[in-house]
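Human: Note token order:
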Amino acid sequence: MKLAVLMDPIEKIKAYKDSTVAMIKSAQEQGWTCEFFTQSDLVCRDGRAFADVSSIVIKDLHQPNWANTKRMGEKALSEFDIILMRKDPPFDMEYIFATYALELAEKEGVLIANKPQSLRDANEKFYTLNFAQCCPETLVSRNMAPLKAFWETHRNVIFKPLEGMGGRAVFHVGEDGHNLGVILEMLTHGETVSTMAQKYIPEIKTHGDKRILLIDGEPVPFALARMPAKGELRGNLAVGATGKVVEITERDRWICENLSPTLKEKGLYFVGIDVIGDYLTEINITSPTCIQEIANETGLDIAGDLMRCLAKKV
């Protein structure tokens, strides 16, 4: 099996905790040949996609020189059996152009995970509205009046941009409404950019923000509960949250059952959903993480299960 990975520059990767690296390592252990490239390596010519690729052989994830790499030159993406799209946000026009390139390879028979069309279709926050039965009360608008009215109704609200990652620009406005106006002005860029409002879920403080991984619509039985740092409300590791591995609940499984048919239909083979309390808050499809954190605590071969799942679809 020939695997290629579209990823961020390798020098930025923290191998000991990186989910993409876990996938490559698992593929390597299964005897696959593994190569990688970045967005800047892509070239599309006469209706076909190419990339300047490098080979990778992983040695020790906990060493500074954790992998051997070698530039292999330009190859047609159609030479690979599977390509993983693991580029982190921002989800900008360059990201979209990359999905167009991957789609050219897909037309030549390459399995792309996750499916390029679905990456464009499913905004990680907005897409939750397709599963409203699983979510807290939610509003999306760029107009101040309905956003303010939502706060007036619930008096305890989270406001966040529809784009972004790592908990950036997420605001909690409580009973006093402190700074509500200026927060909404900033997030909506003066009523020109849509913003999400969600009823605040107090369980974030006691049970954290759970990251649940799904492989082809089936949940991994353990999740990573990310507990906010002292004085924080965001359960994101990037802003100091600490992770605790927990078994998923019956409610979690119910949420996954609601999502599963759609994820399978849309070729979203690897997904990370965020659940706070009893509610779905995000569906992460671009570059879900937490494989190594969960696997190290449980012994589950999450990356291996994913690679075997993808191999069966080729």
